[in-house]
């Protein structure tokens, strides 16, 4: 063998994961880390210890040792999942094979219980393991922050008073507005309005069309109400209006105009959506607002009556008639 | 100041002295919400007044608080200390290797958290068993934190050291008395 003992010592120091091969592909000496992973001083043919994955079809050790290559891929027979990289350097009477754990380094550290002493100081493997560990920690922190942001968002949404689609008040917003009106002394009208044929728009033209219709109706409602009127969408196609200081006559006229505006066809992506609106309403003084639940109940009956009389119309509730 | 630093102070005070002490220190320093986010950045004066109010609540000097903070980063209870001591152990096979690697510490930390910029550290070997460690400008009291970290890391490596502030000089003197005082804590490259 042409590799001398001082050279072996040099290789041991600089490339602890190396093997010196003779012309037959037999191991004549090996670096300390290679010795550690094969579990004792390796002897015999290199291909008895490692499966050669690349280059393929190279099974003759005598040809192998004459092949100068940077692209060896090998797996230890005892750890077939590890993919080690190899560089083979032919020399007079044999070759030097230097190995690295490549991308299997984490698994290799696990499998062979490797320490910092198993890698030369110039090898970046230890730094890479440091990076992997630091990255995992940073990722954990980032995931934690994202989770907390998400739950904060959910809390904020559930505390919101606004309907996301239309920008009108939602049920919670309506409750707050009702509480404020209960405290006051002004008379007030309650209007419950449902869209007619909304379900068929949703069913035939899809939810995007349905959403477009709801946004359009919300805009009409804003146009046909005053600044201080309360306009809410309480789920689906149900709208609730609270209009302070309005006479039954004014309200009736205003609802006529609103219902007629809602009944005009709405265009959505070249298709016409035809809907209408039915409403029940009541005009009460501040004291009657206190029992809001009952007020809603009788106004809802008026809404039902409007639907029964052919839709696209509005009907006053019993309480409003006595005013 | 990076949120991680403030979080480290929070963890140190809560784990060592309890939530009540933490609330008192926060109230004195007017810390919003009495907690910190690890990935946000806070104004430097907030951290300084937090350290000052911790010292006041604990009836100790700010220097002592910072030194204990440093050693709690390594040997404190909980997963956070396990993580820091493991990450620091990657920088050297022995305590002396670790001391030499202190020069690289800011870079090493920036590899893990790119926006966390630590002041420079300089290590000078005066004798094979005597080192002089000094710190760059930027963080007042930083050297006290380093003092605590070195004390705890010496324990990790099982090394007996004397660490002292030198009169009239801005650095720390680290004297290695016994390199194999105890077995130290085992360290493998394998992530826990």
UniProtKB/TrEMBL annotation, chain A:
MF terms in GO: catalytic activity
Domain GGDEF stretches: 186-319
PROSITE patterns linked: GGDEF
Domain of life from the UniProt record: Bacteria
Protein name per the record: Putative diguanylate cyclase (GGDEF) domain-containing protein
Organism: Donghicola eburneus
From TrEMBL, chain B:
Ranges where the Heme NO-binding domain occurs: 2-158
Origin: domain of life: Bacteria
Stored InterPro entries: H-NOX_domain_sf (IPR038158), Heme_NO-bd (IPR011644), NO_sig/Golgi_transp_ligand-bd (IPR024096)
Example GO molecular function: heme binding
Annotated source species: Donghicola eburneus
Official protein name in the record: Heme NO-binding protein
